[in-house]
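Support request from a user on the community tier.

User writes: "When I paste my structure tokens into the form, the page sometimes reloads and wipes my input. The last time it worked, I copied everything first. Here is what I submitted, just in case something in the input itself triggers the reload:"
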């Protein structure tokens, strides 16, 4: 079932008085991560998820850069971000309140098959990250509140299942593989190397040799392909590995060391910049 939310926990780096978060994993949806938050100053660093990032703003506005494009959005706008897509986010002039869920591809595929009664043979994806759809945004808020308030299983599941299916029917698309080029193969080789050796201290020259590109060419091509620098990607991968270890109950200090961070303070700063809460809050949820 729905775990207890962590609100402004007083560990590591507490939120300001004007900022509030509620984070939990919902057992009715296979432990899907859920977040509701109010931010006045907190800005997310560029990062990606290995799940979908689906949500909507209730009030205020957020300024986000997705795939290199910057846009300010407010109520009535959805967030439909596919796995591995790099994005960030910062408050608009008056801050914002929003709600998010992070369903895995497997969960999303299962929901679609359950609701439609048809096998989902292609990879689910969304064609646009920030579509305007006030009706579905309101429906999403209602479904999300049902999860947060821990209402009965039937009400919560029916509401969120229906919203997820409607989101895909209105805004979904088939995922098409991009055209392979020598440069793209090279930067993906570098990316895979960073993912496999995330806990080690990797230098730019070493990574350029792996890719078969000059250092300057690697940085330029990597940013073009992933909208993030190699170092920022390495930090993001470390945070994603850290999330998995924290879910297993590992101590944040041990996780910091295991994931290649210089110390716990360094780890905490980068974690909150990408997740919105501290490692201690994430671990307790």
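"...and here is what came back when it finally went through:"
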């Amino acid at each position: 079932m729905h775990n207890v939310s962590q609100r402004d926990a007083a560990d590591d780096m507490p939120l300001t008085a004007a900022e509030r978060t509620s984070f939990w994993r919902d057992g009715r949806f296979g432990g899907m991560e859920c977040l509701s938050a109010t931010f006045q100053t907190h800005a997310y660093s560029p990062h990606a998820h290995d799940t979908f990032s689906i949500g909507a703003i209730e009030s205020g506005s957020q300024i986000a850069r997705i795939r290199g494009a910057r846009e300010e959005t407010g109520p009535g706008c959805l967030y439909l971000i596919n796995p591995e897509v790099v994005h960030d986010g910062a408050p608009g002039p008056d801050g914002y309140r929003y709600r998010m869920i992070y369903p895995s591809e497997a969960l999303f595929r299962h929901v679609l098959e359950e609701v439609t009664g048809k096998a989902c043979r292609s990879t689910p994806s969304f064609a646009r990250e920030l579509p305007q759809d006030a009706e579905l945004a309101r429906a999403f808020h209602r479904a999300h509140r049902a999860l947060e308030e821990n209402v009965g299983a039937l009400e919560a599941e029916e509401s969120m299942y229906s919203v997820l299916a409607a989101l895909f029917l209105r805004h979904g698309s088939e995922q098409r593989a991009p055209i392979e080029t020598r440069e793209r193969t090279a930067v993906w080789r570098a990316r895979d190397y960073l993912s496999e050796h995330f806990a080690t201290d990797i230098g730019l020259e070493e990574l350029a040799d792996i890719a078969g590109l000059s250092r300057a060419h690697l940085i330029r091509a990597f940013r073009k392909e992933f909208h993030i620098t190699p170092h920022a990607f390495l930090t993001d991968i470390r945070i994603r590995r850290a999330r998995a270890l924290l879910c297993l109950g590992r101590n944040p200090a041990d996780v910091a060391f295991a994931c290649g961070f210089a110390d716990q303070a360094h780890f905490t700063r980068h974690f909150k910049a990408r997740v919105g809460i501290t490692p201690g809050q994430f671990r307790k949820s």
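Agent notes: The reload is a front-end session timeout and is unrelated to the input. The radius of gyration is 19 Å. The CA atoms of residues 145 and 151 lie 9 Å apart. Escalated to web team.
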